[in-house]
Amino acid sequence: MVKTIRQGMLSGIRMVLMPAMMSVLLLLPAVLSANDGLFEVRSASTRLNNGVYYLNATIDYQLSSQAIEAVDNGVPLTFDLEIEISRSRRWWFDPEIAQLKQSFELRYNALSRRYVVLNVNSGEQKSYSTLYAALADMGRLVDVLVVDTALIESGVSHYVRLRAVLDQQRLPGALQMLAFWSDGYRLESEWYSWTLND
Amino acid sequence: MDAKRLRRRANTALVLLALVFGLTAIFLLGQSTQNSDEFGRLQGAILLANLICAIVLMLLIIGNMFRLFKELRHKESGARLKGRMVLAFIGLGIAPMVLVYLFAAQFINRGIETWFDVEVERGLGDALELSRTALDQNLREELARTYRIAEFLPAPNDPELFPVLAELRRETEAIELTVFGEHHRIFAHTASTADVAMPEFPDKDMLRQLAAEGSVVRLEPVGEGGYQVRTLVALPAMRAGFRVHMLQGRFPVGEQLGPLADSVQQTFTRYSELSYLRDPLKQSLVLTLSLVLLVSLLTAVYGAFFFARRLVSPLESLVRGTKAVAEGDLDTRLPETTRDEIGFLVDSFNDMIVRLSVARAETRRSEQLVEAERSNLKAILAGISTGVVALNPDLTLRFANDAAGRILDTDFSNLTGRTLDEAAADKPLLKQFAEAISEPLSERCAVLREQIVLSNDQGRRVLICSSAALQGGETDESGVVLVFDDATALLQAQRDAAWGEVARRLAHEIKNPLTPIQLSAERIRRKFLDAESGEKAHLLDRATHTIVQQVEAMRDMVNAFSEYARAPQVNLSKVEINQLIVQVADLYPSLPDQPKLVLKLDDNLGAIDADGIRMRQILHNVIRNAFEALDGRSDGVVEIVTHFVPGEHGGQAEILVGDNGPGFAEEDRERLFEPYMTTKKKGTGLGLAIVRRLIEEHGGEVSVSAYTNDTGACVRILLPVENSKERPAAAAETPLPRERAG
Cβ atoms within 10 A of the Cβ of B388, count? Predict the structure, then answer.
């Protein structure tokens, strides 16, 4: 009994110390907390077909060990593909013409021991036996409808940019605070931009 | 003033800011306690609100601390009390807060831990395994079914393939059956739904497994919590030359088993997620708690400053007020504060100050009254000609008026507080005065009435002095006030007038019959002396001679009286007294049976202010007196000695006329200078009286003593060298006897 209480006290103290240590960590340069996760847009292009632009892209999703651990423990992760189309302007800010977001939800199904990827936009769901297969398939975008030519002003240069982000807002509440402090959940690619070709 | 107001406004703004953000944080925290997801969403805002609140509070506290330190360093009133109160409040606030915090942290920790149970976890794992086992049976059945279907299928090129496949699908209740060829080629496809979607080609894993094992079966999650069994077998045709030729089937999971298995799966997942999330959750909660604690602590610290200042400020003003009152500022009024005991204290203080200032005003008024009285008295004392000297019980000087200074020839202005003896060190008159009064005073004889005779190089002064005890002030011991008048001139004038009157009458009454007596005697002598002879003629001659001689003597005497009565006014001029003495001495030639006249003159003695004629008379009188005293003695010596006695007002000339005659009896010396006092057989007794009158007219004094060793007589004359004729004792007021005689 005494031991339990002491352990409780000890862990209580540890709980008190933890935020302090975490705040110390916060002050350290981000380099120190080694970020083994990396999102990268490998390639992306648009093609015009019947007055509609389609996006083809390859994205390399490398999850951090923290994120992998979370997925394996049943925490669903949401990945957002943020696509923006802007008109180039010379003297002023470029106005944004269209913006869309493709969201994928990755979760582990313990019963079938499979990783399930759900395209939130289309409701399409696929399962994979490994996490890597799931991530690789998720990173392969084929003919995603982006924008109608009606929105595109002809004769003016436009550009598209794309990035992949781990959506922290969809993380369970308890993880959000951790995500706030640690880099393990701060996963996002650089913006990848290219000119919208006719 | 403006800076102060600005600072106060900034302070208020900061406090409001802290309040707003603090309340926001608390509100958000309240919202977030509903569930942990809400907490996660709101925690950014909570963090921010708390941080801003904490920073603002920190600023306020730093400002307050800075102020307190400044006050402490400048030793301002109330600063130390404030510091102590702040410490006490902080201590009181922090201790329970930290305690509660520790317990809350522990509570969170243990509370979350109690959600999880190893037994439950194992049970869930077992349930999941059970589901899998149950489903495995299902999988095996579906695989067997697929194999059977495969056996019935015709060759891929056979046009019967599709109808057979469709027929088989209906029979086996498969969801979907597809025959794939090389390069994703679909030979036949049938599905239970009208889903036009393309059948999904087996992925690499499946193909690899198919190549290795000849068949694949697996459970795939589909849609919301649904499962399908997916099977893949190589078709016999594949073995017969078609490199890739396979049948893929999809089958539903048992109607009861599916939802149950999914429920188990979901529970298991939920549990393992929660279990995984407990540490982050604990950390988040404790972090939030820490932030709230931080804000609470800072609020407590700021509150400590705030309330300490609130509590101390009336005391501060009280201290300031007390200081001001102690420094004599009675116009201080403290601002009204609260309705508690401190407010009562402040009210009482204000009342006290009002009373004090009223009392002080009254005191001042009475002081002014007393001061006015005192200055009146001073003016009166300064105006009167009577000397007034007040002494303290220890005989130190308390007060002396101008007249006292004049009479005692002393400047009293800076002698206050010193004893008379000290003050009299170089002041002969004051010294004599002090000696004269010291005895009666030391005997504590409160009332004294005495005549005091003082003398200095300006002459002698007769004071009529009386004393009275002063009313003691706070002490029982009382001082003495001495009141004295210079009665020199008055007394002298009285005496002179009396004697002048006597002399005048005498002269008048006696002188008149003298001439007829003398004439009658001479006539008798002329008529009868020649007629008679013998015995008769001799008798007649002797008798008439005696009469004439006595009348002559009487006339001399009467003349002397009238001379005394006339008391001439002296006409002062510079007289070389030594020369005068030599001239007078020449008139007394040295004869064998006459006394010898010896002169011992001081060369330092120059001219003095004197009346030459009167001085001659004085000298004649004195020398004659001496010669008469030595009559009939062959060894008689008369010695005239002069000295210069240095003094404050030009000094004095001392003339001593001594003889070795019989001298004066001790008891006669006092009265030698009174008229009709003589020790000689013949003489009017007016010689020394006249001498004294003349000398007093000169402002000098004369005394008589034994010459040497109690033998002989010595007349000592002291004359001021410089006679200003300003004799303080109102010489001019004295009526001259001669005038009165006229």
Answer: 19
